[in-house]
Amino acid sequence: MVDDKVEMNNDSESYLATNDPKNVQELTQYVQSLLQTIQDKFQNMSDQILTRIDEMGNRIDDLEKNIGDLMTQAGVEGTDK
Fold first, then answer.
1. Fewer Cβ close by (within 10 Å): the C or N end of the chain?
2. Which GO terms describe its cellular component (predicted)?
3. Alpha-carbon gap, residue 38 to 27, rounded angstroms
4. What's the chain's Rg over C-alpha atoms?
5. Residues 6+ apart with CB under 8 A from 27
6. pTM of the entire structure?
7. pLDDT tens-digit map of 6-61
């Protein structure tokens, strides 16, 4: 995440250093491009977080099942929810 911020800052600084906006239209286009980049990165991060949450949920489900199986093998009564 920090690397993305540095990368984005470096990109925007290099763009501004070589392509100073000459008018409002160029500045508007630059800002829109920057906002789109930020939105894309945010969406990518959101997708990654949701995927990890889903994976964690599956692991928890597997763990609960394995604990239930172990309790059954050990002859311990489990409490159902």
1. C
2. nucleus
3. 16
4. 25
5. 21
6. 0.59
7. 455 556 556 555 677 788 999 999 999 999 999 999 999 999 999 999 999 999 99
Confidence of residue 81 (pLDDT cuts 50, 70, 90): low
Q: What Cα–Cα distance (Å) separates residue 77 from each residue in 41, 65, 68?
A: 48, 14, 9
State the number of CA atoms in the 13 A half-sphere of 26 facing the CB.
7
Amino acid symbol at 12? S
Residue 59, SS3? helix
CA dihedral 11, 14, 19, 22 (to 10 degrees): 80
Polymer length in residues for the chain: 81
Q: Which residue do the tokens 């977080």 mark?
A: 49
pLDDT digits (tens, 9 = 90+) for 69-78: 999 999 986 5
| Residue recorded with tokens 């489990």 | 78
Token pair listed for 14 = 């290099």
